[in-house]
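Morning F.,

Quick status update on the modeling queue. The single chain you submitted on Monday has been processed. Sequence for confirmation:
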Amino acid sequence: MSAAETALKERIKELTCLYEVSSIIGNTDADLLEDTLKAITLSLNKAFKNPQKTTVSITTENVSVFSNNRTIDSSFSIQSDIKTFNDHRGQLTAYLEVSDETHNTFLPEEQLLLNNIALKIGSLLEHIEIKKNETSLRRQMQHVGRLEILGEITAGIAHEINTPLANILGFAELIKSDLKANKQSLEDVDKIIQNAIFSREVVKKLMFFSCEMPQEMKQINCVPTIKNAIKLLDATFRKEQVKYKVNIHDDEIWLRADPIQLQQIIFNLLINAIYFSPKNGLVTIEAKTTKKEIILKISDEGKGFSTDDLSKIFQPFFTTKPIGEGSGLGLSVVHGIVASHKGSIVAKNNKNKGAIFTITLPKD
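Structure tokens below.
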């Protein structure tokens, strides 16, 4: 076979490979990415001058595939970087087994082919990442929309209930003053007052959730606020046999916030963490600062959340606690306060065990 015929044959193999890889990528299922990359290595392997002595590999952050199981020790190789959004995300490599019969070299066109395929793989990974981000953003928008509607509803309910509750408390106090000689009646009125006060606290939580509570925003050092909330719960930690660790390396972390509401955020999240922690479990409190934000993390070693729970965790009246042990308003109150401070809160499962809440608040 003449040199021209050999060169033409190689070009046909390369063009066929490009067509096959384009078809493979065009039919990619994001959930079967490893299978797609494996198919690309097989197609690319056939395009080289010495396919029987060549091994192609694709290595990314999460996947590593080879065109065959041939040992690649003492091999000559060429490679091309796989990039997504101009960041290095992996490598496409071709190994050539070195022997007396085979020159340890690749054709210049084979390096160009490798570069071309690496670009296609990078574009594929970019497309998959964009799709995942779009799905995640759509879910977040739907979640935020539901919370906004719930906020409007609960604000209306809270205002409607607040006035009659105030009247119940007021008239109960008046009746109590007239029943000093009747012990049984006094006890009954006290029960009315106690339940009315409890109901008023529920209304307050609803108003916190819907961001209807008045705020006193000012510049505060949040480190003492965080440590004070922990100190208030020290006895609860001991009673429940739960340990805690504070990772705050700064003496001062300043931000504009309502100090009482900030303490309520910490308090509610710590109460939640203690409740779900096992005996001798560890609750970790972290706080750090960036140029524009403070980031607060509270994690526990409990059972964590199911996927379904994570989608509802900040909704009012939703709780994973047994009936009678929680109103389902604690985390919705936290969400409302964080939202009113123009911040964000995210709940997710820890890698090992338990749950972690991450709060981001702007400094100004």
